[in-house]
């Protein structure tokens, strides 16, 4: 018994080592959104291409929606853009943009220059909708189901690998739910 | 070395040290120019912006951070305070958007029991172990003392010398 007691510190140190080692592979930037499972916050904002056209949460409800937060000041958005164009063409999802704290002219130019994958982009100049969505940077992408409930928030760039691992399984699940009439 | 020179060197050292420490006081915290309606609101603003964490730069609070999102949240905090919202309402507002993550002082819940009570439990455990070790009975004294036979033998041996 006494001999076993001598090993307790060693065992504790080993256990601590395992815990800390595991911590090395965790991503501290990976924060669950507080909004998952909640409806899209209500808003009333103009679209990027037409300052007269005011859109609201109702315009995003009814379909399975990807809401992509982007801006021209964000270099990672440029990296992500071709993948979004691709997804908008191939997927049955509706892709909407949230142009976040940007300048209207620069953003319009960006879309003409790089191709516009969005059904429309919401123009959120001072970031009010961004704040309500808990956005803290760009790019971020939200998955919204056909009931208008936020199912996922992803901070960072989408590319083929991210799309396959982070988005496809969830989207397949939502499509299945919709088919079952849920 | 003349005493005058010694004094001059001392003065120089004191000046250098105080300069260095005053430089340390200069920090890179951003400065906003908000006008508060009263002193209490100002103090609440300062307290809350120290207690709320910047979501982008995770090891800084709102008061420390220069990132655009921290500036936005400080503005939001200011506006909520001007609207007369209570501290708890403001904290809920932030948590509803950014999650429990934004609290540097997390709420007591099942998830944070270990965080809140773990250290106290460890200290108690340590105290218990110390008490147990200290109070453990020392080895029996009788065994250390010699029996009368052994005593006689010892005397015999000593006499022989």
Automatic annotation (TrEMBL), chain A:
GO BP terms: cytochrome complex assembly
Keyword field contains Disulfide bond: yes
GO cellular component, one term: plasma membrane
UniProt domain Thioredoxin: residue ranges: 34-176
Keywords from the named record: Cytochrome c-type biogenesis, Disulfide bond, Redox-active center
PANTHER family referenced in this protein's UniProt entry, alphabetically: THIOL:DISULFIDE INTERCHANGE PROTEIN DSBE
Family stated for the protein in its record: Belongs to the thioredoxin family. DsbE subfamily.
Protein name per UniProt: DsbE family thiol:disulfide interchange protein
């Amino acid at each position: 018994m006494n001999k076993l007691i001598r090993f307790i510190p060693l065992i504790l140190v080993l256990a601590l080592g395992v815990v800390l080692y595991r911590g090395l592979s965790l991503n501290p930037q990976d924060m669950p959104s507080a909004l998952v499972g909640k409806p899209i916050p209500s808003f009333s904002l103009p679209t990027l291409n037409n300052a007269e056209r005011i859109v609201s949460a109702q315009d995003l409800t009814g379909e399975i929606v990807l809401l992509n937060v982007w801006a021209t000041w964000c270099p990672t958005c440029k990296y992500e853009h071709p993948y979004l164009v691709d997804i908008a063409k191939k997927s049955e999802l509706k892709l909407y943009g949230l142009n976040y704290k940007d300048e209207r002219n620069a953003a319009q130019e960006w879309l003409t220059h790089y191709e516009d994958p969005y059904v429309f982009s919401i123009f959120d100049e001072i970031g009010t909708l961004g704040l309500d969505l808990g956005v803290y940077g760009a790019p971020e992408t939200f998955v919204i189901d056909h009931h208008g409930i936020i199912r996922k928030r992803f901070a960072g760039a989408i590319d083929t690998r991210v799309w396959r691992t982070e988005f496809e399984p969830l989207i397949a699940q939502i499509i299945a739910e919709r088919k079952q009439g849920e | 070395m003349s005493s005058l020179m010694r004094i001059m060197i001392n003065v120089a050292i004191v000046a250098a040290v105080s300069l260095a420490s005053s430089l340390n006081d200069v920090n890179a915290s951003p400065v906003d120019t908000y006008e508060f309606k009263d002193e209490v609101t100002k103090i609440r603003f300062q307290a809350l912006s120290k207690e709320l964490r910047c979501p982008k730069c995770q090891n800084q609070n709102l008061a420390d951070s220069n990132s655009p999102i921290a500036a936005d949240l400080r503005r939001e905090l200011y506006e909520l305070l001007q609207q007369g919202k209570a501290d708890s309402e403001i904290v809920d507002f932030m948590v509803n958007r950014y999650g429990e993550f934004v609290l540097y002082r997390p709420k007591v819940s099942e998830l944070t029991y270990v965080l809140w009570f773990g250290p106290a439990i460890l200290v108690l455990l340590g105290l218990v172990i110390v008490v147990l070790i200290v109070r453990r009975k020392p080895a029996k004294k009788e065994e250390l003392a010699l029996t009368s036979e052994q005593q006689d033998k010892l005397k015999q041996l000593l006499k022989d010398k």
